Protein: DUF99 family protein
Organism: Sulfurifustis variabilis
Amino acid sequence: MARRWSHVAGFDDAPFPRSHRGDVLVVGAVYAGRCLAGVLSGAVRRDGRNSTAVLIRLVGESRFRPHLHAVLLQGIAFAGFNVVDLRALHEGLRLPVLVVARRRPDLAAIRRALLLRVGGGKRKWSLIQDAGPMEPVAGLHVQRAGLSLEEAAALIRATTWNGALPEPLRTAHLIAGGIATGESRHRA
């Protein structure tokens, strides 16, 4: 029997200046079918290590949690290099988690940056490796926990109806950008 993907939360971080230090806004758009059912927001530390705990708290303590079928992330890191522990997020929420990217990331450049310029970079690189390879599916690249590649494709198809990205991610991106800069810009 195929899984249902009607109730999904998608998370993205807000844009911030390169010189910014401190907390960065993270926004979640919660969809029930094609209807925006709610918005979640919190803050994670720039290049920190609290993104997993913040996401578990935001989703786990929300009124939406009992109905959710999956969580989508726009990339595996928020606020620069605050890398999400994909397995811990999946286990903490007991929900499938799908990391989505438009393009395959340059892992060699990410590794160099983490190991040479970011505090705790070795641990963060390990989290990226533990999440598994970026796999092409439905015109995007994904990392996943708690769902098969076929289920990931079905989840993307079920939640994408306006552009290339799943609507919960597109909406979270637009909301986060609008709050942080006063107006959303760039394509989601």
Q: What stands out?
A: Strands lie at 7-13, 23-32, 35-45, 70-74, 77-78, 82-83, 97-101, 135-137, 140-145.
